[in-house]
Amino acid sequence: MAERRLRLGVAGLGRAASSMLPSLAAHPHVDIVAAADQLPLARARFEADFGGRTWESAEALAGDPGIDAIYVATPHQCHVSDVVAAAAHGKHVLVEKPMALSVEECAAMTDAARASGIALVVGHTHAFDPVVRTMRDVIASGELGALRMIVNVAYTDFLYRPRRPEELDSARGGGIMYNQVPHQIEIVRALDGGPLRSVRAASGVWDRNRPTEGAMTALLEFASGVAASLTYSGYDHFDSDELAFWIAESGADKSPAHGAARRALGARSAGDEARMKAESAFAGRGVRLAETPAHQPHFGMLIASCERGDLRPSADGVLVYGDDGVREIPLPRGRTFPNKDGVIDELYDAVVRGIAPLHDAAWGTATVAAALALVQSARERREIMLEGADVR
Amino acid sequence: MAERRLRLGVAGLGRAASSMLPSLAAHPHVDIVAAADQLPLARARFEADFGGRTWESAEALAGDPGIDAIYVATPHQCHVSDVVAAAAHGKHVLVEKPMALSVEECAAMTDAARASGIALVVGHTHAFDPVVRTMRDVIASGELGALRMIVNVAYTDFLYRPRRPEELDSARGGGIMYNQVPHQIEIVRALDGGPLRSVRAASGVWDRNRPTEGAMTALLEFASGVAASLTYSGYDHFDSDELAFWIAESGADKSPAHGAARRALGARSAGDEARMKAESAFAGRGVRLAETPAHQPHFGMLIASCERGDLRPSADGVLVYGDDGVREIPLPRGRTFPNKDGVIDELYDAVVRGIAPLHDAAWGTATVAAALALVQSARERREIMLEGADVR
């Protein structure tokens, strides 16, 4: 018997959508049938590439009777209204991280989803990466004893990728705290599996021309006692992919190019930079559906320590450093590039099979709460307690 | 005119002395003329190798009229009495880290040194490494703007090196908190240059057979606002020298050997293990004075981020990742192996040239205070404020 197909609309055809469309297009049970974007060029590109209907707004897309679910990839500040609109029309939702910019917005989205009975899945983050899932499985197996400590260190060129003005404004969800640190928060949450107890963070705005947080270091402690050390710098100096076998976040092969993003960006007006971003994203280039990655996607250098062994992603799997030496768990290459199958599987399983998603509204809310606590901790230079913030 | 020579006695001929003797012996203005140890085998070895006088106790050595200074390398818990005895006899002191096991002991040592007018130098730690000093110089030059963030990550086999029983007892200064974390504390203190404001740590005792702290992660914030993330595991699983060009802490070339220390130790009685330690240290093997290291000594993976660039030790110098790419500052090889010249130079300069040491009693006390605050933070699962703890 044929599996039921999921008819999907894409709200927002920007960089997030560019990155998700290969996995959506390759999914065996998903049909991409509609999209919304305010840019005519993006809509024309979608019609040419996917042959579906287009709308000028996410709200209009929500009213499309020919879709079952909406992938909300609009700017962060639009997530709450776009998800509430989708729910009002009975459409299931996959919403990009961060779920929203406040716990109150998350609550509004959660309430709307609950009231209309739709599935609400939050992601993709690198917590969905096969290497992280495999590490989680090894931890859960008990082979290495209890998980005790996690380190994740990422140095990237994030701050010098082309941006729209709001992406450089922390108050509107710009900078690393809402866009990169959530990957780290979700990776360690996925590995521990329980609620956070407290966080202590320090962050920095080091480039006056890009006045949003570009670097951070934090110590997170879970209720379980597991401690996680997270460090991020997006200032395009050192590149932590050197510590991860010189493969890129996506799993692609990579050559050292320190400072290349800064040089490519150069000095240009905000308008020029926004155009540069649009041209390098879906509206300008569409998506390349045929690529496959050379290696596993990952996020920075990651080490999870259990009582009797350490776990670390390798280029093509997971390294297990046990009492008696090291072995590698090889992993199959993803179908697509980037590989974001995990989050789409969760949406499909929730809608069609009635399987509750792991990365549901409560999960996404807890990540937003943690990110906001890190922001608060850095601002107030003190530890912030989080007990009770995970509503799970 | 010939420089004045410093006549030195060595109190305690254990592993610390084994590691320091090459640098002491190679120093152009230091003569090793006496030593103290309770083990007859160690005294005999010293007499054979160095031809000097030997004593059964550090107190007896302190009374030797033929020495100007004492290198105190006795077990941690003996530091306070051995330094006070040296001061009472007007002998200058170089005392191993940790300076002592409490701030009160440090105060007693400081008072004794002040009362008798002797020089008191604390070290060696990896803060004296040429790579760290070079990073500090680049930071001080202002070339990269202000220092903002430091990460140090070390995964070693520390816990499975042969130990005496007290080295596995935290109450007597055993475990990583008093022996390895001080390296990390001093590296980041040397780079920032100012007092610490607060610390938050989590530590773990993961092997019941070696019931002392073997792993830790911490966030330290300096009064300057600089944040430092320190992580250490001595459980012989992952080896962070993989992230540091596969060179050992000493600068020697290294081959991966995950779990080798645990296998070599095996299951044996405490007495057998103490004997194994003695045999592998000075009493059993003496010191090899001719070796020179292939590369620079270092401690784990270290990245210091300034506003306009990151600094990182390379195998043979320091990498500067600036706005326009990466360059390397090459450093000369050390005269000796391990290379601990820096701390001996400080002692010599303090005694002979009247130059106040950087790593003086106040410096050593602040490191002990920081290590104790990390212990307290981990125990109480909360941030500990340190303002005022640096008496400088």
TrEMBL record, chains A, B:
InterPro entries: Gfo/Idh/MocA-like_OxRdtase_N, Gfo/Idh/MocA_Oxidoreductases, GFO_IDH_MocA-like_dom, NAD(P)-bd_dom_sf. Pfam families: GFO_IDH_MocA, GFO_IDH_MocA_C3. Coiled coil: none annotated. Residues 7-124 form the Gfo/Idh/MocA-like oxidoreductase N-terminal domain. Residues 132-239 form the GFO/IDH/MocA-like oxidoreductase domain. One of its GO terms (molecular function) is nucleotide binding. It comes from the Bacteria. PANTHER family: BILIVERDIN REDUCTASE A. This is Dehydrogenase. It comes from Vulcanimicrobium alpinum.
